[in-house]
Amino acid sequence: MSRIVHRLTTDSRPAVPALIAVTAVWGLTFVQVKDAIALYPVLPFLAFRFAIATGVLAPFAASRARLLGGRGWASAAIAGALLAAGYTLQTLGLERTTVSSAGFVTGMYVVLTPLIAYACFRIRIARVAWGGVALATLGLGLLAGVHGGGSGGDVLVLAGAAVYSLQIVLMERYAPRYDPLGFTLVEMLAAFAVLGVVAIPTMTVPHGWTVWGALLVTGIFASALAFLIQTWAQQRTSATQTAVTFALEPVWAALFGYWLAGDRLGVAGWAGCAAIMAGIVLAGREDAQPVVDPAGVA
């Protein structure tokens, strides 16, 4: 573990391949989490997930977290609280929809991010990005209701994607100022604190390999290492590279949903997936990148 941490904090070459690996892990966890929350309540599951992530990072990052300062702690805590909210909405939605559908709707955060950036910091959006928004919205309409779970799950997942978009906007703006290890530890700790308090009424000890296996994979790989890599990589790659690479997450989710969960979306569903992916890629083009309006920056 110490060698992995040293490599992540000193070497910039594997940034994009590392992000691709992260999206594959996130895509796989859609299947694992869906199986686990069928046996164990959502909120305690998420609380234990981020508790594991905090415990994994603490031995390597505690000393660095103390150097973040008040603003660094506040920024990381806000990012962590947003993660807690986003994962709660996404996981509740996953209970009511398919793995493939949840994965592709989650991918909407790549398109929603420039909209959130404009709302928060008055960052102008290129016309081609609006085209991506329109395509992705059309795809969501095709995707909703074509599976057995109903469209309510898709709405919850979409709300989670909007929260993720806000988290990405804040990360792009503030995270590069701070040490990635220390920042990620505080982020995971904040997510655990929020979810731990909310989950108290339904908290029980997890049992069974299905639940514990999902907790270990999501806690160690999909949370501790994944968000450390995200914070680190966004300091070394362009916003376009990061956004387009993250667009692979719903592709992995669909593939794993097909291979492992037996998802069958039909023609309309896959057409919706294709439209969402086209919108994500279109919104991630270089000429679609937002332009900052200096008068509107907070």
Q: Would you write up a description of this structure?
A:
With about 300 residues, the chain is mainly alpha-helical. The protein has one domain. The chain is about 75% helix and about 0% strand. The protein contains 13 helices and 2 strands. It has a two-stranded antiparallel sheet with strand order 1-2. Helix 3 runs antiparallel to helix 9, helix 3 packs across helix 10 and helix 4 packs across helix 9. The C terminus is likely disordered.
Helix/sheet category:
mainly alpha
Number of E-type strands: 2
Element-level helix/strand string: HHHHHHEHHHHHHHE
Side by side, the strands of the main sheet go 1-2
> How much of the sequence is in beta strands?
under 5%
Total discrete domains: 1
List low-pLDDT spans.
Answer: 5-12, 291-298
Ends: how far apart?
A: 39 Å
| Major sheet characteristics | 2 strands, antiparallel
Give the quaternary arrangement of the chains: single chain
Q: Helical stretch count?
A: 13
Q: Give the overall form.
A: globular
The Cα radius of gyration reads 18 Å
Overall mean pLDDT stands at: 80
Please summarize what this structure is.
The chain is mostly helical and 298 residues long. The protein has helices at residues 2-10, 15-36, 42-65, 69-94, 99-106, 109-121, 127-143, 151-174, 180-199, 209-233, 239-246, 248-260, 266-283; strands spanning 123-124, 291-292. The protein has one domain (42-201, 211-296).
